[in-house]
Design brief:
The structure holds two protein chains of two kinds. In chain A, helix 2 packs antiparallel against helix 3 (51-62). Chain A has a single domain (1-486), classed as Amidase signature (AS) domain (Amidase signature (AS) enzymes, Alpha-Beta Complex). In chain A, strands 1-3-2-4-6-5-10-11-9-7-8 form an eleven-stranded mixed sheet, sandwiched between helices. The two termini of chain A are 30 Å apart. In chain A, 41% of the residues lie in helices and 12% in strands. Chain A contains 18 helices and eleven strands. By secondary structure, chain B is mainly alpha-helical. Chain B has a domain at 5-42: Orthogonal Bundle (Histone, subunit A), CATH 1.10.20. Chain B is built from three helices and two strands; from the N terminus they run αααββ. Chain B has helices at residues 5-14, 21-42, 77-80; strands spanning 87-88, 91-92. Chain B has a two-stranded antiparallel ribbon. The two termini of chain B are 43 Å apart. Classes of the chains: A alpha/beta, B mainly alpha. At the A-B interface, helix 12, helix 13, helix 14, helix 15 and helix 16 of A face helix 1 and helix 2 of B.
Chain lengths: 486, 99
Amino acid sequence: MPPESGRPLTALAIRNAVRAGRLTAAQACRAALDAIDVHEPRIHAYISICADRAMEAAHRLDADPARVARLPLAGVPVAIKDNLCTAGLRTTAGSRMLEAFVPPYDATAVRRLEEAGAIIVGKTNCDEFAMGASTEYSAFGPTRNPVDPSRTPGGSSGGSAATVASGALPIALGSDTGGSVRQPASFCGVVGLKPTYGRVSRYGLIAFASSLDQVGVLAGTAEDAALALQAIAGADAADATAAGRPVPDYAAALEHPVAGLRVGVPRALVADEVDEEVRDRFDRACEALRAFGLDVRDVSLPHARHAVPVYHLVASAEASANLARYDGVRYGLRAPHDGSVIGMNAATRDAGFGRELKRRIMLGTYALSAGYYEAYYARGQRVRALIRADFEAAFREVDFVALPTAPTPAFRLGERLDNPVQMYLADLFTAGPSLAGLPAISIPCGETREGLPVGLQLVGRMFDEAGLLRVAHAFETGAAGRNDGA
Amino acid sequence: MSLTPADVSRIAHLARLELSPAESDAMLGQLNGFFRIVEQMSAVDTRGVEPLYTPLAAVQPAALRLRDDGVTEADQRSANQASAPAVEDGLFLVPKVIE
């Protein structure tokens, strides 16, 4: 069943067709694999494609119609960022260090997607250990933006965003530490949802920065993002940071009216260092929200402009600790060495880690080292508390905060490789909500004159994914409605 | 303040990274570039502000949650060691540590 209008099928449409017997999981899976084959030479969104495994899973599903009828993602082909463990399927985190690593277990989010009926077709490319904003720091070569292959898809979940944007499949999992789901969603023109810290289990997510990492969703529509979140959210005995609070019915929440909801815009922050066209599309998006009956007003986030240095201090410090485990002993690479233990550790880490990893490990080790801990790491965490307090104050006046997702549209490959600090500034608007632990969503809100997508970011209160999805859905369908009427 | 080449070599040793001289040079410039954007943050008044080490602390008690003390997993030593660089008789092999 090929897409009729030229638009790719949504997860909801595939699920409904499979449940009704109009489409088999095997057909849906084959179509996704064929589409990936067409796009892959141009965009390189995948590190591994598991066609045989996927077709077997699809046939198993098709053999059990009674089960299919109950599954919320029956037969939906999905892709998984390659830093989420998949049992028996190589998981590299975009690094030479894990080039041959085959996990003995599934990440909880992966297992829950499969239990909901989704079919995993491949593992997507990402910046090494999810550190980067362009997918250029993958050890397996960069992914390219399907909208314009001379540009990056963003990162670090660039492969997941690119494959969804190419139309090959409707849903991909990513991970977001400082913007790694939202920024690529913005660059590629898809929906990117970073849930609240604690909403989705991180069991089996290869650790980068443990006080920030969260599993997120890339999807073509807010409705599909809701379906995916429904499947993966909730408590998990294997992750003490996965929150126990009940998971609401996200699909039902999409239907609630949005009129009267209040949206705050931190004007002073948005005035800083933002591409002119991005600011224009953002302003128009705020006007559109107002036209849908939302109350759009100004708020102030005075400490948010410090988010980039705070984020990079905290995330790098945590990364330097998390990455200490790659020592050439228990799993992953062991490089040729001088016969000593320390020599083995150092040679392995030199051969296994790329230059951005080494920068972050150096930065984090320095920020945690004796004599500098208080000035950098602890001070960073204090400013983090102030950033969060700003959001808490704003949420006493409004229900959501609106920001551009990224200060620019997709930049060109190679453009920022020699300037790490400029690469870090891509996180200007996404790092703050991450530091505060808040849920946030990026939704497409227009294009530049060159046709590059621009993303609108909405930030919500802790655990208010339902509210974010509801406004995103209204924005999406409202915008579509206006286009149809024009 | 600025890092010196000696700082870079000390940190690289702490982090168990081997850096070539060219890598160390580039690293020095890039780290100092980053710490220039940190300076603004250092001017923020944080007197009396408690560090926020985890965002969950804002919504639930930060104390560790404990699960029941029960056996939940079978022994999977060989599966868990399948990606190890060198094992023998269920043990991880490393270079000689004690002479």
